[in-house]
Amino acid sequence: MFALTVLFLIMTKLRIIGIKFMNNKPKIAIYDFTDCEGCEVKLVSLGKIFKILLKKIDIINWRLGQERAENYPYDIAIIEGAPIRKEEVELLKELRQNSRMLIALGACAALGGIPSIMPEADRKIWYEKIYGSGYAPKGIDAKPLSAYVKIDFSVHGCPIDENEFLRAIEQILAGKKPSYRGHSVCLDCKIKENECRIIEGKLCIGPITEGGCGAICVSGGSPCYGCFGMREEANISALKKIFENIADKKEAERYFSMFHSRSGLS
Amino acid sequence: MLTQKFIAKIEGHGELAADFKNEKARLVTHEGERLFEGILVGRAEEAYWITPRICGVCPVAHNLASLSAVEDAYGIKVNETTRQLRLLMKCGQNLQSHVLHLFFLALPDYLGTDSGLELETKNPRAFKNALILKNIADKIVYAAGGRNVHPTTTTMGGFNKIPNKNELQTLLNEMEKTAKTAEWTAELSQKLEYPELKTDLEFIVIKNKKIFSNKNESVNIKNYKENILEETRDYGTAKFGKFNSPSGKREVMAGALARIALSKNSAETAKKYRLDFNNPFHNIPAQLIEILKYHKLAVKIVKKLLTAKMDGVIAKPSHNPPLRGVGAIEAPRGGLYHEIHLNEKGIITHANIITPTVQNLSSIEKSANTLLKQTQNKTETERKKLLIMLIRAYDPCLSCAAH
């Protein structure tokens, strides 16, 4: 009987990315590196649902939300923002080593996002222009978390869609590996009955972007810059070819680099 | 661990460095430099898409300030529907930001909990009302802006998409249902005890395209750069701003308390709500009162829109536009300034942003020093707690400050 129990425990541990929470709540830490904190604001927007979620998880460290700040180990470290300062990069590595699962929250963490538009080589010029000469910079570069450590899952978006965050957490709590939607933004657009931007002769990264955002930007009349991250089998070169017929090279480059200057897309 | 040094429950990463003996306090900003002014150069008018990402607590304010800057540069005059919808977004924004700051960051200090989420058990009414208000604030911004954080419907010259009358009527019904809750927040301001502090506060506020101070001085917003001077300090990544008026350079406070102090009914409001314009802690009751004010204003705007003819036409650039523009707005935390220069191809060649928190940082440190002078009889732990409460009362947004 004892051997069976041990075997069961080992198997459940192995079944998913090493996380099976038996009766006790997973210990979660929410960290934010340099960013706008808008994805955390989206978590608060969950309101009552977030409170219900708190019955299933234990947030033991969350600077923005509470004074309580317990040290690792964590079952899940949720990280928002791009590590720009050296200390943030070091902390990220520490968190990776001491958390069973590491989740990137939002475009800055997952892709580098808006801050990564600034090329590393240009930072020096801008430090001087913005802060004046003699300023001792604190930042190194704005890169996604994956430039430094392995990420187990990304909750995408700029900002995230709070329901996609819930979906991922629910999957984890159910003992599953969190999964992506497996379709592009195009499906979200069809559901919303939006006109196709590409057919209208406008740039759009939707066809190669992971869905789940509800095509909220295109529905509002804005462009899709692909903040939900690239799909696994994205046919990037085909989309770039279509772009050649729509816009000049510079405009297309600007378009791709909104969220993807460090994701290998542009 | 690195996190412990950051002050909990404020927007962004700040560290308090206090010298209790010499009565000097500093607020050190540890945000990385994102260099937004540099990011903008080389891009097109999409500045209004990029700058909301400076701050997720006040993204709508950045969106509106950038829109107004690029429209100024292109000589665009927007129509009345656009003006009203943007004003509605601003009301929603100030509500969102105040509710988030009050109930999730600052008020737990006054209501005896650590996190805002714990209020559910310790003060269920406050918790319930906080959620009701957050929800209605989000709905207002959704209705006009397309999303509660980082708007999707706004564009240069107007809106990509405007709400229809049915959507506005639904919003109005929801707002009317929450009117009592907004009244409750203004009453709540009377039930809390604020720490004592006597300072000589100077306020600053934007009204009718002018920057006003309570020392009876005003300057045109176009001259914001000469009148709000920024300086770099050798500690932290945020700059510190001072008001450079004709009579000298001084620390100023921006935000809710400043707006009330410089409003037409300031004396009346102060009397009704026992507001003390010499105590920066009173920025908290001021925000509670403003929740009622912005809620009422939002109701008024939606009613007006319901009877008006909605005009969804996007205004076009004028001939020979100046290609240099300034956009200024009273954001939740005070005056926000965006300046944008473009070349003839429509590419940004220069950008400058001054945020409310930059202006407040100098005032925060000045008030913190005063607090240390006036609390000599207290223990170091008590003084530290008060300093942190003071910083929270100013509602600093360090993501904005460093940008």
Describe, in plain words, how this protein is organized in 3D.
The complex is a heterodimer of chains A (266) and B (403). Chain A contains eleven helices and five strands. The termini of chain A are far apart. By secondary structure, chain A is an alpha/beta fold. The model of chain A is unreliable at 13-18 (pLDDT under 50). The longest helix of chain A is centred in the first third of the chain and has 14 residues, at 2-15. Chain B has 403 residues and is an alpha+beta fold. Chain B is globular and about 65 Å long. The model of chain B has no long low-confidence stretch (mean pLDDT 95). Chains A and B meet through helix 2, helix 3, helix 4, helix 6 and helix 9 of A and helix 1, helix 4 and helix 7 of B.
Mean pLDDT of chain B: 95
Number of helices of chain B: 16
Taking the sheet with the most strands of chain A, its summary is:
5 strands, parallel
Helix content of chain B: 40-55%
- What is the radius of gyration of chain B computed over CA atoms, rounded to a whole number of angstroms? 21 Å
Which two chains have the most extensive interface, and how many residues on each? A-B, 67 and 63 residues
**Helix and strand sequence of chain A:** HEHHEEHEHHEHHHHH
Shape of chain B: globular
- N- to C-terminal separation of chain B? 25 Å
In spatial order, strands of the major sheet of chain B run 5-6-7
Q: What general outline of chain A do the C-alpha atoms trace?
A: globular
Return the structural class of chain B. Answer: alpha+beta
Largest sheet of chain B: 3 strands, antiparallel
Count every helix of chain A, treating DSSP H or I runs of 4 or more residues as helices. 11
Instruction: Give the low-confidence spans of chain A.
Output: 13-18
Average of pLDDT of chain A: 91
Fraction of residues in H or I helices of chain A: 25-40%
How large is the share of residues in beta strands of chain A?
5-15%
According to DSSP, the number of beta strands of chain B is: 13
- Low-confidence segments of chain B, given as residue ranges, are none
